[in-house]
Design goal:
Elements: H1 3-11, H2 13-37, H3 42-53, H4 56-66, H5 70-88, H6 90-119, E1 130-134, H7 144-150, E2 158-168, E3 173-174, E4 177-183, H8 187-191, E5 197-198, E6 213-217, H9 218-224, E7 235-238, E8 241-249, E9 264-267, H10 271-274, E10 290-294, H11 301-318, H12 326-333, E11 338-341, H13 348-385, H14 387-395, H15 400-438, H16 452-478, H17 482-487, H18 498-533, E12 543-549, H19 560-572, E13 577-583, E14 594-598, E15 611-617, H20 621-625, E16 629-632, E17 646-650, H21 651-657, E18 667-670, E19 679-686, E20 701-705, E21 715-722, H22 729-739, E22 744-749, H23 750-757, H24 759-793, H25 795-803, H26 808-837, H27 853-879, H28 883-888
Parallel strand pairs: 3-22, 4-9, 6-8, 15-20, 17-19
Antiparallel strand pairs: 1-10, 1-11, 2-4, 2-10, 5-8, 6-9, 7-8, 12-21, 12-22, 13-21, 14-15, 14-18, 16-19, 17-20, 18-19
Helix pairs in contact: 2-3, 2-4, 5-15, 6-13, 6-15, 6-16, 13-16, 13-18, 13-24, 15-16, 18-24, 18-26, 18-27, 19-22, 24-27, 26-27
Length: 891
């Protein structure tokens, strides 16, 4: 019989069995007729024919087995039996499926993020050939002169540079910013991306004085431009400059920076147009480019690095910044170039979140292990209840391997159904995690669709789960002695201690792992609590930061101070505005301006020790932020561009650079020992504030008056204090439009800025807290099941104790001691594991240590309380047993 026919018979077993019976019956009848014609009686002929055929039932089974794929048929029978067993134990099956689903779903969700952020290559031709060019760091920023030297090197098959930006599409008022890449001419050719419409940027588009052309993404084309077929040749406004659209990039290429979907691509040479600065691209200290390339055929990254390194001295000599100190120039000339494999492109999200994601992966793997232990206990209990059934099967000839395979199949079936539920949960959880990631970085684009890596991960997890929690019950059940099991009575409880020891070992492991997760969650929650409680040195409520772009106004730079003064006057006149100030750096914006400070009597321990943060602020800045001036004065109208230079310093600067002595009237110089600047007099001291982010320590900060700090581009950063920060944004927009309608505005509340600066700790705290609670719940269920099973097994013993006069409280104490013993052993093991593994969290904690005794003690107390609660329910039930009923039960 052919393979296809045998496979078809497996899919229709009843029809195949009916055909076999008909065929055998036909042969039997033919033989009976022949024997009757030979002189036998009808009854003797039928008996003889049946004997000659070898038994109708046995021959039917043999014929049926020959006409099917026997292994597939038995597997299908195991599946059908497993489904019936699940239907007969609905509650237990639902608990098992939900446990597996949550564990698999959590693992799949975290792995999908790891896959999208770390593992998935760029959707371009041969991404394995892509490399990032660096000079000693994993990611390095390049200047344009440096890039122009590198692109001329023959070490690679091709190279390109790009810079990320958010360009404004509006012509005034509230900004409409879209993610933009300035790219070199080789960007699309080297990557091998093809246009959806029109053409993409070419080397001819990237020359000094280039035309203002741009390429848009398919998503932007459909969302912002209506998907018009005539898009090629139309123009869009980028920072008030017209750019002609020459092509559309297909949706399959979201951009080179993983996590950010780029909407617009403009040639690198257009940066000078956007900046309104023809010499912008010549800046040897303007670090803003990322450089990547493609390896030559047969070349590897190490070979490319050697070639780049050999040519590095000439590259750095040709791009040496002439205004740098001699020591910095010497260090610059010693740099080298190298190529690092980058099939996944560049991603700041990868740099910030790869380690936390791997830690979360370990956390959810532990949750899955606890869930597997619960399901293993459930299947062991079900196998115990089916002891007599298994014994009967063995007694009538079933092989132990056949029983082992059947029980293992049931475990695999539970794992498969749980995994399907888990995949659905992972789809929802993955989208939620992407939104949480976007809380600190605006819109985050991550491709979390199922690919071969994710599918392989789900398959492996499903198979391993089924084997892990199905193997032990199958092994134990298949080793049952039929004689002992059939003599053990009707209750079906497996005798002896091996089963109990296995169940108790699983519970101990669950409690130990739960303690690890609860302690880790406690550390991260405590760290986040401390971050939230940090005083940044100013009041955040009612504070609005406005970024105003002046570049497109057409007002010359020399008149910007007057324009800024008009803006401030209009804002102060708005009803409800309490104070207004400007600053070069907005606090907690992750932007920075630093440099060397030289003072008499201060000798830095090393080069970094002499660095301070700087900011340039207008009079009233400290009043607006409600940062107290401790001594001295605020900046005023007398601090002009022509007056002697002055500064206000914070407490950290006083302690660091002046040894804690009163600094009022003292001077310092900005710069290093080779080229110090002119003297600056300290006229005030303010309280410490956080500069870039909440989780940093208070560092030295020097404040200059905005009138003496020079010109810092075309942006105003205006801080406005009022009772309700967001309610006055329309009034601010209208007031600034009256000054000049071309000024574009961005708004952010300081409270949102603070929240964004602690987004990663919040993500870790929330997820670790959720998974820690889930692990605790699963451990509680496991301990409850083990104690309840133990009580059921000792039902007769408890009945005898009660009949002989034991008080119910003694029974409760006995059961709780058993639960407490298991919990105690698990807590000891968990404490060892916690102390060994919590050091992995050290870099992610603020204000606490990985071995914080208070957090560990609290976690132990919580896990112990939960464990005793799990044992209390079966203990109370045991104490309420009726001795007569318990003694009549065969236990």
């Amino acid at each position: 019989m052919g393979l296809f026919r045998r496979l078809t018979n497996v899919l229709r077993p009843a029809h195949h069995s009916r055909d076999v019976r008909r065929e055998l019956q036909f042969h039997l009848d033919e033989r009976v007729d022949a024997l009757v014609q030979g002189g036998m009686s009808s009854a003797d002929a039928r008996l003889t024919a049946q004997r000659q055929l070898g038994g109708l039932v046995r021959q039917s089974e043999r014929t049926r087995d020959a006409g099917i794929l026997e292994w597939l048929d038995s597997f299908a029978a195991d599946l059908r039996y497993g489904l019936r067993a699940m239907a007969n134990h609905r509650l237990a099956s639902v608990v098992a499926i939900v446990s597996i689903g949550l564990g698999v779903g959590a693992n799949t969700a975290i792995f999908s993020l790891i896959n999208a952020v770390v593992l998935r290559p760029l959707p371009v031709a041969h991404p394995e050939e892509l490399v990032e060019i660096t000079f000693g760091e994993r990611h390095a920023s390049f200047t344009n002169p440096l890039w122009e030297e590198v692109r001329a090197l023959p070490a690679l098959a091709g190279s390109f540079a790009f810079a990320e930006a958010d360009l404004d599409l509006a012509t005034g008022g509230v900004a409409r910013r879209r993610p933009t890449n300035f790219v070199s001419g080789g960007f699309f050719p080297v990557l091998g991306v093809r246009p959806l419409a029109g053409r993409l940027l070419q080397p001819a588009d990237d020359v000094r004085g280039c035309a203002s052309v741009a390429v848009v993404s398919e998503g932007f084309w459909r969302r912002e431009l209506g998907g018009a077929a005539s898009v090629v040749g139309t123009t869009i406004q980028l920072h008030k400059h017209p750019f002609e659209i020459v092509g559309v990039v297909p949706r399959s290429f979201p951009g080179i920076a993983v996590g950010h979907a780029t909407d617009i691509y403009a040639p690198l040479c257009a940066e000078a147009t956007i900046e309104d600065n023809p010499t912008f691209l010549d800046g040897r200290s303007t670090w803003f480019l990322t450089v990547m390339g493609r390896l030559k055929p047969g070349q590897d990254a190490e070979t490319a690095s050697r070639e780049l390194s050999a040519r590095a001295p000439a590259v750095f000599a040709a791009t040496l910044p002439p205004d740098w100190p001699k020591r910095e120039q010497d260090r610059y000339l010693k740099r080298t170039l190298s190529a690092v494999a980058s099939p996944g492109g560049y991603s700041d999200i990868r740099a910030a979140y790869s380690t936390p994601l791997y830690i979360l992966m370990a956390v959810v793997a532990i949750v899955l292990a606890i869930a597997c232990a619960n399901v293993a206990q459930l299947l062991m209990a079900r196998a115990a209840a089916r002891q007599r059934e298994i014994a009967v099967r063995l007694a009538i000839g079933a092989s132990r391997w056949r029983l082992f395979r059947q029980l293992l199949t049931e475990g695999m079936l539970l794992s498969l159904i749980g995994a399907c539920f888990g995949v659905l949960f992972a789809q929802w959880a993955g989208k939620l995690l992407v939104r949480l990631l976007g809380a600190s970085r605006g819109t985050v684009f991550l491709d979390t669709t199922i690919d071969w890596r994710l599918l392989g991960f789900i398959t492996i997890v499903t198979i391993v789960n089924g084997i892990v929690f199905g193997l032990a019950p199958a092994w134990r059940a298949s080793r049952i002695s039929p004689q002992s099991a059939l003599r053990s009575g009707s209750q079906g409880i497996i005798r002896g201690e091996p089963g109990q020891r296995a169940g108790k070992a699983l519970v101990i492991g669950q409690i130990a792992l739960a303690l690890v997760l609860v302690t880790g969650a406690g550390l991260l929650l405590d760290s986040f609590r401390r971050l939230v409680a940090v005083d940044p040195g100013f009041r955040t409520d009612g504070l609005l930061v406005v970024r105003a772009e002046l570049g497109a106004t057409g007002v010359p730079d020399s008149l910007h101070p007057a324009l800024e003064a008009q803006v401030l006057d209009r804002l102060r006149a708005i009803p409800g505005v309490q104070s207004v100030a400007t600053s070069t750096i907005a606090p907690l914006s992750h932007m920075g301006w630093n440099g060397f400070v030289v003072t008499d009597g201060f000798t830095p321990r090393d080069e970094q020790d002499g660095i301070s943060w700087f900011n340039a602020v207008s009079p009233g800045f400290f009043r607006t932020y409600q940062t107290p001036i401790l001594t001295g004065r605020d900046f005023g109208a007398t601090d002009t561009e022509k007056s002697p230079r002055v500064a206000i310093v914070n407490q950290a600067a006083v302690k660091h650079f002046f040894g804690g002595a009163p600094p009022i009237g003292k001077t310092f110089r900005e710069g290093n020992g080779d080229t110090p600047g002119e003297p600056v007099e300290v006229v005030g001291v303010v309280a410490n504030t956080r500069y870039q982010s909440v989780d940093e320590e208070s560092e030295p900060i020097v404040y200059y008056p905005a009138t003496q700090a020079g010109h810092f581009g075309d942006q105003m950063r205006i801080s406005v204090r009022s009772r309700d920060a967001l309610s006055i944004t329309p009034a601010i927009t209208a007031a600034i439009a009256e000054v000049h309608p071309a000024i574009s505005l961005d708004f952010v509340t300081m409270q949102d800025q603070v929240a964004a600066s602690i987004a990663r700790p919040r993500l870790l705290a929330v997820l670790s807290g959720f998974f820690g609670g889930l692990a605790l719940l699963l451990a509680l269920i496991g301990l409850y099941g083990t104690i309840a099973y133990s009580v059921a097994r000792r039902r007769n013993e408890i009945g005898i104790r009660l009949a002989l006069g034991a008080h119910p409280s003694q029974v409760v104490g006995m059961i709780l001691r058993e639960a407490g013993t298991l919990a105690g052993i698990g807590l000891v093991l968990g404490t060892v594991l916690t102390l060994a593994g919590s050091r992995l969290l050290a870099a992610m904690l603020y204000g606490t240590t990985p071995t914080n005794p208070a957090t560990l003690a609290l976690s132990i107390g919580v896990v112990l309380a939960v464990a005793l609660s799990a044992g209390a329910i079966p203990a109370v039930r045991a104490a309420r047993l009726d001795p007569a009923t318990a003694l009549r039960t065969d236990g």
